[in-house]
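Email to the structure team, subject: Esterase model.

Hi all, the expression group asked for a predicted structure before they design truncation constructs. Nothing fancy, just the tokens so they can compare against earlier work. One-line instruction: predict Esterase, return tokens.
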Amino acid sequence: MPETVTQSAATRASDARSSQTYVLIHGGYHGAWCWKSVANRLRTDGHTVYTPTLTGLGERSHLLHANPSLETFIQDVAQVLRYEELSDVILVGHSFAGSVVSALADRMPERLRHLVYLDAQLLQSGQAPADTAPAEAIEIYKQRAQATGGVSIPPGPPESFGITDPQMIERVKKLVTPHPYRTYFDKLKLDHPIGNGKPVTYIACTKPYFANIAPSREYAKAQDGWRYLEIATGHDAMLTEPDELTRMLESTP
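Reply from the structure team: attached below.
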């Protein structure tokens, strides 16, 4: 049975492991900004944290004209691992960034200690992110992209990410950016099974469930040896439940 973790922020410090290195990768339409609360909590507890922003998003949205690909996203984070000389990393990917986590585990396993997929897509080799989404969702993406000439997909409302707090809704509206269109249709290439034998934790957001992630959640549940956790909040858990998510990340074996 999946483990549902509910624990108060007051117990976070007692659960904190010795200093670890985390690389937190945002999902579609987001940027490093979405990890701010979790990153601050991890750093307060003595951990080292990197929050790279993928090309064309967040504070790098001015690079959208470069037509970034899925490979661009993978290299964005690979270069952080390489040039920051990181090792023993807990690599965390939210939503769309699940494909980035899988690619890096495939190519750079020696730098990684544990993989954490946060309500993330799990793609097999040869699949594109669009292949795991419902057909109606892909049609919506295509319709939105028409307004940009097929360059990008404008973001949906914050409520579509499971955000309900009025102040948070207004904040997210200001910060989300269009997502590079082609990255949804680029195919992921893996030379090994998902995770490449590294320890894996999958954290599913359950209140409400994000429909686009359903096949990936079911895949994660079925994997022997993977740790499967649930957090009772919407898809953007780093924004809506930063204390509990931080505790879950700090509990990584």
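The beta strands are 3-4, 21-25, 48-50, 89-94, 112-118, 152-153, 179-180, 200-205, 227-231. The chain has one domain: 3-250. Ping us if the truncation boundaries need rechecking.
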